[in-house]
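Expect chain and fold; thus:
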Amino acid sequence: MENIVDKIKEVEKLVCENFEYLEMDDPEEEGEYDDYLQISGATNEQIALFEEKFGVKMPEDMKELYRYKNGSKWFCLFFPNDKLDREFQYRLLSLAEIEEKKKYFQNEDALLTEFYSDDDSADDLLKIMEDSRVKPYLFNRKWIPFAETFGDICLMMDFDPASEGTYGQIICYIHDPDEIAYVAETVTEIIDDTLSNITFEI
């Protein structure tokens, strides 16, 4: 069985070889891949300090990912689908970028209903988001963004799951209209999904 690093290396190769099919600019020509190759992994100490700062315990496969690459700059690594089969491309945030982002995003606890004065709008969104694995929040201190698109869409580690969820599961914040969607149980599942999606595209 391939480990997560081997799978990421396969993603790297496929992205560089098939960027046109993925409707991307050439990451090698743009210099994105060269910049990515220069990125080193996080140390165990850096990961432990990160966990302590946010009061969480990262899943082992996520730690392994960060030991390999502490971020990806503008090179996209994740191409998962959410439950509505929407396809987005995500870059991996470094631990430092996550800490900076948490200063203004997912830095409070707020239910989705607190942001909608129109009861009907809130009800409609709650029906879309209804999932026994994810709590009906829009913002949660225990949601840690770790990947983002070039817009206001983020993948997040969920360290405050609902009754049928899993600690550290992956959810997605989508802006306008604001929504939270379940994506996967683990980052390994996201990488497997990415490999399947890229292979399917080509």
